[in-house]
Amino acid sequence: MRIYLIGMMGSGKSTLGKELAKALNYTFIDMDHYIEEKCCKFIDEIFRDYGEAWFRAFETNTLKEFKKMDNVVIATGGGVIKNKKHKEIMDGKCIYLSVPLDVLEARLEGDETRPLLKTKTVKEILEERIPLYEYFADIKVENVNMESAIKEIMEALK
Ligand code: S3P
User: Fold this and answer.
1) Could you state, in chain order, the average pLDDT of each consecutive group of 10 residues for the chain (158 residues)?
2) Which of 3, 61, 129, 136 is the most exposed place for a label (fewest CB within 10 A)?
3) Pocket (CB within 6 angstroms of ligand 1)
4) Statement: the pTM of the whole predicted model exceeds 0.90
5) Separation of alpha carbons 72 and 27, rounded Å
6) Does residue 5 contact residue 97 with C-beta atoms inside 8 Å?
7) Within 10 Å of residue 12's Cβ, how many Cβ atoms?
8) Which of 13, 15, 32, 97 to mutate to test the pocket of ligand 1 (most atoms within 8 A of CB)?
9) Please, what's the largest Cα pairwise distance for the chain?
10) What is the distance in angstroms between the CA of the first residue and the CA of the last residue of the chain?
């Protein structure tokens, strides 16, 4: 099975994803890192040099590549849900890590690596995306405490 973790920047997809993969004996993939390695650039450099539309198209191709893999936990980039067509490509279990706004704001304060935070607030991004995360989600879990979120996910996957 392929498990896709979706959720906002700062929702803990990578941190929780590594632990979840260990618990399931699956391979962990961080989609942003995967893209960075393929492009030999950091995400903020990709946005700066090629623009967001280019990055989003690269995300689509990367998701298609992931379809060849099995028994993986994939921490996606927070904006993967911006393209509704991705729902078809992401055939597996989509787990939405939901985190309250104030917690996200605290986690992302002073973050220089996320290009979208240069032009929008966390609140603006979260508000426009909540319906999309809900649309993609097979399972929704609040991730404020990682251990309990993992327990909840393991139960839901049984
Ligand atoms: C983005 C989130 C980032 C990264 C890029 C765009 C977004 O990933 O893909 O900066 O649109 O929310 P993380 O969710 O891992 O920070």
Assistant:
1) 97 98 98 98 96 98 98 98 97 97 96 91 97 98 97 96
2) 61
3) 9, 13, 32, 43, 77-79, 114-116
4) yes
5) 5
6) yes
7) 21
8) 32
9) 44
10) 13
